[in-house]
Specification:
Layout: H1 12-15, H2 26-30, E1 39-42, E2 47-49, E3 56-58, E4 63-66, H3 96-100, H4 107-111, H5 120-126, H6 131-144, H7 146-155, H8 160-183, H9 191-195, H10 199-202, E5 208-212, E6 218-222
Antiparallel strand pairs: 1-4, 2-3, 5-6
The protein binds iron/sulfur cluster (SF4).
Length: 233
């Protein structure tokens, strides 16, 4: 008799990162199973590990994922709903990718990769969020897109203007978040959903580190080796 294969609940998949959300997960947001501060956006152009072949690739379009626990180490991508005994805290309401995921046969999950993923504007619209939130997302994206940063990073060595513009963008991202949190009374935990991860953390993907100085200014430091970003797509 053929043995029925089932999840051994070892937690390995959930420790590799939370799921990206799809349109069928919208009810979980509307019902409050998932809240905006549970989410993290990986913006278009950000480097992630491709689930299908493990290669580090730039995202062709943004994805919104369940974030790691707040305060997790930078290299700890475990889904925030994974409990200490390897169970899913929202087991009865798992997102679509988690329902499809089975490590011994990832075909169902892989077939979903380009299937109607939710993005920030779709989520805000689905939740009838105030219009200014969507406007903030669009305004931040137009100034801080990874496409623009990649172009500036490529020319930084030979072009002082590109270096200055890169640094200005990193600073703009930092200040914009602070402003939205303060003036818009947005909880700081929601900022990684609204504007993606802070550039101070992600520009390492360009081989550049940003160091904050005691006087509040920021210095860009070229790294000797090219590190990679994390998180699975
Ligand atoms: S939502 Fe549950 S099943 Fe899905 S990755 Fe998180 S802990 Fe695992």
């Amino acid at each position: 008799m053929e043995k029925v294969r089932s999840c051994r609940q070892c937690g390995t998949c959930c420790r590799a990162g939370g799921p990206a959300l799809h349109v069928e997960d919208m009810p979980l947001l509307k019902e409050g199973v998932l809240q905006l501060n549970d989410l993290c956006t990986f913006r278009a152009g950000e480097l992630v590990r491709d689930t299908s072949d493990g290669l580090i690739v730039p995202l062709p379009a943004e994805i919104v994922k369940i974030a790691p626990s707040s305060g997790a180490r930078p290299d700890d991508w475990a889904c925030r709903f994974l409990t200490g005994d390897n169970r899913c805290f929202i087991h009865g309401s798992k997102p679509a990718e988690c329902q499809a995921l089975f490590c011994e046969d990832p075909s169902a999950l892989l077939s979903m990769q380009d299937h109607e993923r939710l993005d920030r504007l779709g989520i805000l619209q689905g939740l009838d969020a105030p219009a200014w939130l969507a406007e903030s997302v669009e305004s931040h994206e137009s100034r801080c897109s990874y496409a623009r940063l990649a172009e500036l990073a490529e020319n930084m060595d030979s072009d002082g203007e590109a270096r200055r513009a890169f640094l200005e963008t990193v600073e703009y991202d930092r200040q914009f978040r602070g402003l939205v949190a303060e003036k818009g009374r947005v909880r700081p935990e929601m900022l990684d959903f609204l504007f993606g991860r802070p550039l101070l953390k992600t520009i390492i993907m360009f081989g550049i580190d940003a160091r904050r100085n005691a006087d509040g200014s920021t210095t860009l430091v070229q790294m000797a080796t090219m590190p990679h970003s994390g998180g699975r797509s």
